[in-house]
Amino acid sequence: MGSRGPAPKENAIRRNEHEHAVELSPEARPGRPLPKYLHISTSAAKRFWKTWSESPQSSTWMETDWEELAITTLLVDQLYQGDTKLAGEIRQRVAKWGATNEDRARLRMKFEKPEEGPSEPSEKELTAFDMDQELYNKLRAV
Q: What is the number of domains present in the chain?
């Protein structure tokens, strides 16, 4: 049985780069401090702000994006206080910033290759175990 169409050329080059594709550095950068007027009470919401404010995506943000982060951080704070109905809204909002690989592919975000090196959390930063423990304690209290 024959193949369909002509055989591809050797060393073919893809030419369908999107004109609005964004290439970002994967390096974390100093983020903005969490605004005190938000009155965030949970450490999970504080981590959420810190993570997103230091993300590579935030290097391209305008003031309106920072306001969206503030509103979403308030929603995350309420989520960790027990209002689980907000999970879907939070997911929709963070998808617009490129939260997952799929989101970033849809938004045509590319990241430069990071330099390899050991990275260990500092003593002040919470580890994944600390975050899991906090969530476990919250769920157990319900």
A: 1
* Residue 45: inside a domain: yes
Residues found in the chain: 142
Domain containing 59 equals 36-113+125-141
Torsion-angle region of 98 (φ positive above 0: left; ψ -120 to 50: alpha; else: beta): left
Model pTM score: 0.65
pLDDT tens sequence across 51-71: 999 988 888 889 999 999 999
Q: Which residues of 2-17 are buried (b: 16+ CB within 10 A; e: fewer)?
A: eeeeeeeeeeeeeeee
Q: Which two tokens stand for residue 66?
A: 């920072």
Whether 54 and 28 have beta carbons less than 8 Å apart is answered as: yes
